[in-house]
Amino acid sequence: MKISYEWESPWRPNYEAAMTGMWAGASLLTLVAAKYMPVPIPAKFSVIAMAVCTTMALYRGNAAYKRYTDITRLDNYGKEFISIKELIEKTRMASRNNAIWLGKGFDWTDMEAQKMHAMLSQGVAQTIGKITNEHHLDGAYWIHGLEAETDRFMDIGNLVGHTLLVGTTRVGKTRMMDLLIGQAIIRGEAVIIIDPKGDHGLAENAKKICEALGEPERFFYFHPAHPEKSTPLDPMRNWNRRTELASRVGALIPSETGMDPFAAFGWKVLNDIVNGLVSMGVSPNLVHMKRYIECGADNLLLNTLRHHFIDHVTEWESRSGGFIKKHRDNVLSAYIDFYKQIAIHEAQSSDLDGLISTFEHNREHFQKMVASLIPILSMLTSAPLGEMLSPDLKLADDKRATDMAKIINNDQVLYLGLDSLSDGTVGSAIGSIMLADLTAVAGDRYNYGIKSIKPVNLFIDEAAEVINQPAIQLMNKGGGALFRVTIATQTTADFAARLGDENKARQVMANLNNQLILRVIDTETQKYLADSLPKIKYKSLSLRYGHGVDAHVQDEFQSSYAESMTEEEAELFPAAMLGNLPPLHYIAKLSGGRLIKGKLPILGVQN
């Protein structure tokens, strides 16, 4: 039985070009023959012959041109740039279709995969020739030439599923963030950028876009190395339950499990201090915590007791007089004794109970148990961070002090540089505590409704520097609060190294429904990303020729010719090719399985 199939090598020689020349030559020859032949050729026949030849030349010429453009597209080596004005136009065009713009490219399907495998099978150098040294190419640019490029868009609803941006250094992760951040700003949404490296271009572009929109007041800047132009930012301002504040700082205590005695005791002390401050109507901050842990909570406990007596114990001043005389004017000891013997029966307070137990704890043992907590608070309150992270309310008014809730509620833009290159420990601590603050804000939006509230766009560059448990919770449950998280990293192993647990690293990856993949050189990361793609059936055509002379029949010559097409399983996009992507080129795997091969322009700061 004869089996028919339609398949041919996409990179075979351009036979159509030769056919076009032949038909065009035949048309010209017919014209010459009709004019100069000794025996006249009928005009009608000449016209018909020329029309047929010309038609075939045009038909074959069209096919030859298509094959020519397929080959010449492989030589696209240049970089492209986009101005802020052009990005605004692209964003507004995309927003009308509820989409975001992802540069230029094409959808990657099994057809493009067939072309890639055919190219690799045939040989890249054999197909397009060896690249001359004048180009100094950094990557397989020919991949982007497998199909004609057009503007690529992604459904904006996919962003709630969160996005992973992965790529090695100097391949375009920050430039990709420029485009995503810029579009979120142009849409009028809240944008928070956490940048451990402190990329000047990232901050400058965000600021310039706000200015181009006529909204420079939307942009806020925070960077430990530039306190003079930074906005004070209080990471302890927002909370739903008091215990969140203790957990926010306690999460920074070095611990293998998070449940060792030192971490647990540190959390208790922090919680007692927070309860005391809140009961007096004081908004807790990092400076308060450091002061009462380092210098003792005597004054805090005294004022907390006094406030409690005023609010809940009748005639407490006269009734406590005897205790003051008994303790020889040691007011704090007298008040503690009065509370334990008298006031506790009338108005017991769990906040006071905890604070008193902290105060009465053996001082030497206390210092040992909080030894790991004091350096963390010292880092976050030493100059200039003391005023930047724990702003005084009067000073705050002069410097536009803000917090995460204000940024989000007012649809503002916050650039948060961590200066991790200069001090990685402090930068990591700042980033972690800010993420915990954001998680509290997300919980508040989730609990109390988000009707008519715009989405919040969180971008974290070099995410492994700051990722923590609150950040995992934010990605896991933040979708209901309209949080859209985009995190950038170099390898998937960075998360395991940061969190100290492979399972937690998998938790992070499981919450990232969209993947924007630039060049990746880590083989484990390549395999992880490629394994999530479906397989295809790669077709290949093999030819066999044979000839010979039959030894039993005098001089009988035999020949044979055979064609066979085989199919074998292949990767939709090979893992190893992820290491060959040129800078600014990416593969996007979107929620639902859609795949895009794209190329990014570089956003300029001039509008």
Structure notes:
The protein contains 25 helices and 15 strands. The protein has 607 residues and is of the alpha/beta class. An eleven-stranded mixed β-sheet has the order 3-2-14-13-10-4-9-8-5-7-6, with helices on both faces. A two-stranded parallel sheet has the order 1-15. The chain has a two-stranded antiparallel sheet with strand order 11-12. A hairpin with a 5-residue loop joins β13 (585-589) and β14. It is elongated and about 140 Å long. The two termini are 67 Å apart. Mean pLDDT is 87; it is low at 1-5.
Give the distance, in angstroms, between the N- and C-terminal Cα atoms. 67 Å
Strand content: 15-25%
Q: How many domains make up the coordinates? A: 4
Count of extended strands:
15
Category from helices, strands and their pairing: alpha/beta
**Lateral arrangement of strands in the main beta sheet:** 3-2-14-13-10-4-9-8-5-7-6
How many separate helices?
25
**CATH topology-level fold name of the largest domain:** Rossmann fold
Features:
elongated; 48% helix; 15% strand; 607 residues; 15 strands; alpha/beta; Rossmann fold
Give the topology.
Blueprint: H1 15-36, H2 43-72, E1 81-82, H3 84-95, E2 99-107, H4 110-122, H5 124-128, E3 150-155, E4 163-166, H6 173-186, E5 190-195, H7 200-212, E6 219-222, H8 242-250, H9 261-279, H10 286-294, H11 298-312, H12 316-319, H13 321-326, H14 331-346, H15 350-360, H16 363-369, H17 373-381, H18 385-389, H19 393-398, H20 404-409, E7 413-417, H21 424-448, E8 456-460, H22 469-477, E9 483-489, H23 493-499, H24 502-510, E10 514-517, H25 523-531, E11 535-549, E12 557-571, E13 585-589, E14 595-599, E15 602-603
